[in-house]
Design brief:
The chain has three helices and two strands; from the N terminus they run ββααα. By secondary structure, it is an alpha+beta fold. It has a two-stranded antiparallel ribbon.
């Protein structure tokens, strides 16, 4: 089940729906950095490829933080 949160990013109101586990991972990331969740999300938003949806960028950031051994997307190291 997705959990939706609303926030202000770059002066615009936006909503993001993520699974609770991803919200938990992002909250821990923010705490680790000593910043608020909205600031973390704004930083991720500012650094994402515009072709990638914000929700997707947040999921990838959480995975990259908590599973650093994952190869970057498109690296050809995927096992299927």
């Amino acid at each position: 089940m997705l959990r939706k949160r609303s926030m202000m990013l770059s002066g615009h109101r936006t909503s993001v729906a993520l699974e609770p586990e991803f919200w938990d991972a992002l909250e821990r990331m923010a705490r680790t950095r000593g910043i608020g969740l909205t600031i973390l999300i704004a930083r991720i938003d500012a650094g994402r490829d515009p072709a990638r949806a914000l929700a997707s960028a947040l999921r990838v950031a959480a995975l990259s933080e908590w599973m650093p051994a994952l190869p970057p997307a498109g690296s050809g190291n995927r096992q299927e």
